[in-house]
Amino acid sequence: MKPAPFKLVAPRSREEALAALAEHDGDARVLAGGQSLVPLMNMRVVQPGVLVSINGCRDLDYIRLEDDRIVCGALARQAAAEESDLVRRRCPLLADAAPWIGGMANRNRGTVCGSLAHSDPLAELPAVAVATDAEIVLASRDGRRTLAATDFFVGELATAIRPGEMVEAARFATAWSGERTAFLEVSNRQHAFAVAGVAVRLDLAPDGRCRDVRIAVMGGGPTAMRIEAGERAVVGTTIGVEAARAAADAVERAVDPPTDIHADAAYRRRVLGVLTMRALQQAAGRS
Ligand SMILES: Cc1cc2nc3c(=O)[nH]c(=O)nc-3n(C[C@H](O)[C@H](O)[C@H](O)COP(=O)(O)OP(=O)(O)OC[C@H]3O[C@@H](n4cnc5c(N)ncnc54)[C@H](O)[C@@H]3O)c2cc1C
Questions:
Q1: What span, in angstroms and rounded, lies between the C-alpha atoms of 129 and 249?
Q2: Tens-digit pLDDT profile for residues 14-27
Q3: pTM of full prediction above 0.85
């Protein structure tokens, strides 16, 4: 089945892209890597009248360090984040998660910001954004605004993006001084979407005590979720078995997973508990 008819606009810059979105207010969608949008259009689940392709906007293709944040422009490909030495050093959780996204061919085209804008509850990058206190920069012809990732994701395939707006960039917090990370997921087959997954960041003091922590899950509800009850169970501890188990139990209590053809809610809840325990111990260097 082919997409419904649409007009393709190919701006060459951020300014031109914003002008095109404003001109076709409400009926235009951004086309980035097309790895999610094109399949949805082919199935006619979405039928935009106008596609504004940002693939020619070189000024949106960057990954850089800015104000102690790793900033990915709207055209930064997932593979670029995966291969970036700067990302590996300054935002290791993003580097850990990228290889789990589909296959290499998908990551060569798919963008970091496109995955965030798509807001799939089983996607890796929204969980990374939540676990790294990311800021999402939204732009329109009228100006810019910045939202915390937790305010940006509002539901399954739903975000706070307004008509005429695009995600211009995502700003991920850089690593804490004692940062340790782990990203674990379960899927039914290689390169498939996850059934459930957990992203963990720890800030360990020299004595091994946890000074700060982020636990974010995918597959625990309609959006990526931060589990603060789980975090409270491990802060101040050396992430021993008891503390990790308490965090895992808190995660299982906090989530409300979906049931679908890939897995049921009870299975996802259990998997999220087990992965939380493993990820905490892996990050703490105990596994
Ligand atoms: C075979 C296959 C396997 C996959 N496996 C995984 C997986 O395991 N994990 C995973 O997370 N993803 C997976 N994906 C999806 C992939 O990661 C997509 O790249 C991602 O979901 C969307 O990014 P994109 O750049 O391709 O965006 P597009 O497909 O171009 O757009 C996706 C949506 O976001 C909007 N959008 C894109 N960019 C912007 C922007 N800058 N501002 C505003 N709106 C924007 C579009 O309008 C559209 O609604 C898979 C895809 C395929 C085809």
A1: 23
A2: 999 999 999 997 79
A3: yes
